[in-house]
Amino acid sequence: MADEAFDIRYTASLARIELSDSEQEAFGNQLADVLQYVEKLKELDVDGVNPTAHPAPLSNVTRTDAVGPSLPTEVALENAPAQGHRLFLVPKIVE
Predict the structure, then answer these.
(1) What is the pLDDT of residue 62?
(2) How many domains does the chain have?
(3) Is 90 exceeded by the pLDDT of residue 89?
(4) Residue 1 lies in a domain
(5) What is the rounded CA–CA span in Å between residue 17 and residue 15?
(6) 94 falls within a domain
(7) Is 55 a residue whose pLDDT tops 90?
(8) φ, ψ (nearest 5 deg) of residue 83
(9) Residue 18 included in any domain
(10) Which residue among 36, 47, 52, 63 is the one 20 to 30 A from 22 at the CA level?
(11) How far apart are CA 41 and CA 30, in angstroms?
């Protein structure tokens, strides 16, 4: 079974998922394996290795923000389930 310090039932309740006893055992064992591997990684000597978020440099590829052709309002609203005053009407979800 998983490491005693890790409570798979508690974690499942936080995630709001129900696990059967067999799923708890299977996931607990898998998680124990992952945690054991993380402990093994802690043994690596990383002195002189700079922290990085990506193995290769990244640059953000963006296009110029320019006005272009768009749909006419009537075409955009053709399939709207509800519309009014040339706008989409949606249910209120925030009190």
Answers:
(1) 87
(2) 1
(3) yes
(4) no
(5) 6
(6) no
(7) no
(8) -150, 155
(9) yes
(10) 36
(11) 17
